[in-house]
Specification:
alpha+beta; 5-stranded antiparallel β-sheet; 5 strands; elongated; disordered C terminus
Length: 120
């Protein structure tokens, strides 16, 4: 995890998850000039690589176009917010689920981004 200070940032604390298609890869929280970020475990990056290869997108501009950032408000304790989101995503996306996503995307070559955190 890294912590950075910048001169400007969002007025309210924001938590962002960076996705490649349906696969989360990184969590970033920021407020004012303070930013905390953490990458998800290596299995997430490996899943992105596998999905991109199977979809024929590795190394292409189409690959880069698949990245997305989804933000939501969060609490003031940025480190706690990032830690909680990383833990939640790691629990919700075990290796078996990542494999299903990779296989589904390779078969259909299309994807939609997941809705905001499940509330059910």
């Amino acid at each position: 995890m890294s912590v950075r200070r910048r001169s400007a940032g969002p007025a309210e604390p924001q938590l962002s998850v960076i996705w490649w298609r349906d696969i989360p890869t990184q969590v970033v929280a920021s407020h004012g000039g303070h930013t905390v970020r953490a990458e998800l475990p290596a299995r997430f990056t490996a899943a992105v690589d596998r999905a991109a290869m199977r979809a024929g997108l590795a190394g292409s501009e189409d690959y880069l176009a698949q990245w997305d950032r989804r933000a939501r408000p969060c609490g003031d304790d940025l480190q706690a917010e990032v830690d909680a989101e990383v833990a939640d995503l790691a629990d919700r996306y075990p290796s078996s689920r990542l494999t299903e996503i990779v296989n589904d995307q390779a078969a259909h070559r299309t994807a939609t981004h997941p809705a905001a955190k499940d509330t059910a």
